[in-house]
Predict the structure.
Amino acid sequence: MKRMGMVIGVKAADIAEYKRLHANVWPAILDRLGKSNITNYSIFLREPENLMFAYWEYIGDDFDTDNQAIAEDPKTKEWWNICGPMQVPLTTRAEGEWWAPMEEVFHLQ
């Protein structure tokens, strides 16, 4: 199992809608995440900075393939088309990244 964390901004004007959408994530999105070995997924919001931190645990053995299956899923693409414009990627992210990955520096088990 690998713990993964990422960060992104969110537009202040879209926070209420973003919260509403994530209070009732579409079942097809949750199903695809599960099929791609993503579990224990949380998103946290920090205001007034309007930063979101996402955390999940990956329980598979080929993250690139599982992540590609998420990216190719039609319902996920539809979900991203709704949520993506609300997000503000960090200017420091690497090319090809949307959410910026974070390094785990501590874990207490």
Observations:
- The helical segments are 15-23, 27-35, 63-72, 74-83.
